[in-house]
Specification:
Organism: Eiseniibacteriota bacterium
Largest sheet: 10 strands, antiparallel
CATH topology: Porin
Strand content: over 45%
Oligomer: single chain
Protein name: Porin family protein
Keywords: Signal
Number of domains: 1
Shape: elongated
Helix content: under 10%
InterPro entries: OMP/PagP_B-barrel (IPR011250)
């Protein structure tokens, strides 16, 4: 049900805003670091993914995404015993809403929701993820390329525990290519 609601909200926002003006669709890739926040059992890892930004009105972009993150292994010393735990691998999808300001050089805060699956030995949970962050993008004037750098906080509730969550600080860079652009409706 959670997965379906994410896509329904993204579709509703897109359809609601379609008559407002020109619509553009792009596809992009991104990668960067995924840094666990206040997690002593998970190390820094990498994050890669695909985004499909749909600019529905001049200031609002809805961006479905798919990501794969690999957490780094973490060693813990318990007296004379040292234990190494595997990092948490995350596979997720969802949608972000970006509020863009500027021209060729854009600044945009964003929020998002998604469904993320967390996996490692002893952990196999699918839960709702909440994202918030800021980004800076540059659109090349002639070609349909744009470049982005983002800083984001992502949080997921631990399954079975409503009082704690796992959080990551993600720093990513990416490139997008404009596929389609529809003219404004008169």
């Amino acid at each position: 049900m959670k997965r379906l609601s994410v896509w329904i909200v993204a579709l509703a926002v897109t359809c609601w805003a379609l008559p407002a003006g020109a619509v553009s669709v792009a596809v992009g890739v991104f990668g960067g670091a995924s840094i666990p926040v206040a997690q002593e059992d998970n190390g820094t890892g990498s994050e890669l993914g695909i985004r499909v930004p749909v600019n529905v009105i001049p200031l609002v972009t809805v961006e479905p995404y798919f990501l794969k993150a690999n957490g780094g292994d973490k060693s813990e010393d318990l007296g004379s015993l040292s234990i190494t735990r595997s990092g948490i691998d995350v596979t997720g999808y969802g949608a972000n809403v970006l509020f863009s300001f500027g021209g060729p050089l854009q600044f945009y805060p964003f929020v998002g929701i998604g469904s993320h699956k967390l996996e490692r030995p002893g952990l196999d949970a699918t839960t709702t993820a909440y994202n918030a962050g800021v980004g800076v993008g540059f659109k090349a004037p002639i070609v349909k390329l744009s470049f982005h750098v983002r800083a984001e906080m992502s949080a997921v509730l631990d399954e079975g525990n409503t009082e704690s969550s796992r959080k990551w600080a993600n720093v990513t860079a990416g490139v997008s290519y404009g596929l389609l652009s529809f003219p404004p409706i008169p």
